[in-house]
Protein: Sap-like sulfolipid-1-addressing protein
Organism: Citricoccus muralis
Amino acid sequence: MDFLDALAGGPLFAILAVLALVDSTSFGTLAIPVWLLMAPGKVRVGRMLLYLGTITLFYFVVGLAVLLGAGWIVENLGQLMESRLAMAFGMILGVGLFLWSFRLDSPAAKERARSGNGRLAAWRRRASGQEPGGLGSLMGLALGAGLVEVVSMLPYLAAIGLIAAQGPGWPASPLWLAGYCLVMVLPALVLLAARCGAGRLVERPLARLDAWFARHGASTAAWVVGAVGVVLVLNTAPAVLSAL
């Protein structure tokens, strides 16, 4: 019996906990919080909690909507994603991401990142409270991250399906969903506590890591965006071209 078979045969609580911990390593629930924690200076605990609360609430609302329409989604989502329109949209999006990756890795973008004047650096300064207008930027960052990755979070969609099929039913199922969303941000909360409790010990390593990201972040982001674009084109182009 492999890992997936063992997981599927376990208690529902254990299955959901494992899926939630997998989701906790996503871009919005872990990568961005770590990026915000690397900002120099004192950690604004309230702002970090606002970010985590916003993305948790976003996922809960999306999950609740999916839970309400779980039956329809299971029956129709597969056909919708395989339609010609969806394939064409995916191909156009892939080409756009691939072209955008070259702009992200331009010499001007690299220079702005090194000098601390890049868009990401400015966004983080506002989000962390170092510049005015941070709360809106912080909540926008959380919502934007959620929108970008929610359709690719297969463990979350699987968990919603399990709650709908094997959960306690209404009105308890939304409580299970809320618990799942809280577990998703638990590692980020642990890192926040560690950053606050051992700030002096971790400040220098975080500063070095932040400097490395400033030097190489533009190229890394460009490679990631370009790779996603290529994968989208490769997955959708055959269906689009065969329909011509």
Residues 199-242 form the longest helix (44 residues). The CA atoms of residues 55 and 204 lie 28 Å apart. Confidence is low (pLDDT under 50) at residues 1-9.
